Amino acid sequence: MIKLEGITKSFGDLQVLKGIDLEISKGEVVSIVGPSGAGKTTLLQIMGTLDKPDGGTVKMNDQELNRMKDKEMAAFRNKHIGFVFQFHQLLPEFTALENVMIPAFIAGTSTKEATKRAKEILNFMGLTERSTHKPNELSGGEKQRVAVARALINHPSVILADEPSGSLDTHNKNELHQLFFDLRDKFEQTFVIVTHDEGLAKITDRTIHMIDGQIV
């Protein structure tokens, strides 16, 4: 599903990625681990088209992403890729349901269809009774599950997560980790997760270790 070849990236004189080759198959739950500064987040951002490499190719579903024009790339990203970050980034003035619906609206989905999808996903996550609550009325774990639901609304083929459980306590962390596998089993999605959590890395299908901009 995802194929990276010879990916390099520098910021000024600092070379962050030094020729990354990586393949990820459909339905895999893959973790990327390594010390701070190893290049994990930069790699994830390039994989998700949030940044462009200096060299190399990024392919997803047999399409070469880094050759796309910005508008074409944005449309591909919104349709095929979902993002989950360490901090939920929910909009405080909207309910859980409305937050989940936002990417569907951006994709041009009708209000009726977006509402239906959002309710189905929130129900799957056990959040039906919390759907009309705003973020300040939700627990940390609930907020992060809403963020995951938002990432799923457009039925993306891959979910990219950057330290998704880093701000959660042990109970909510374990629930979120299990949720990734439940979602993979139900929707056949691929998960690529940057994490410092050894417990999560141990239960993923494969762990990619990075040091100094290289896979080791």
From TrEMBL:
GO terms for molecular function: ATP binding. Coiled coil: none annotated. Keywords: ATP-binding, Lipoprotein, Nucleotide-binding, Transport. Pfam families: ABC_tran. Residues 2-216 form the ABC transporter domain. PROSITE patterns: ABC_TRANSPORTER_1, ABC_TRANSPORTER_2. This is Lipoprotein-releasing system ATP-binding protein LolD. It comes from Bacteroides sedimenti. The lineage of its organism: Bacteria, Pseudomonadati, Bacteroidota, Bacteroidia, Bacteroidales.
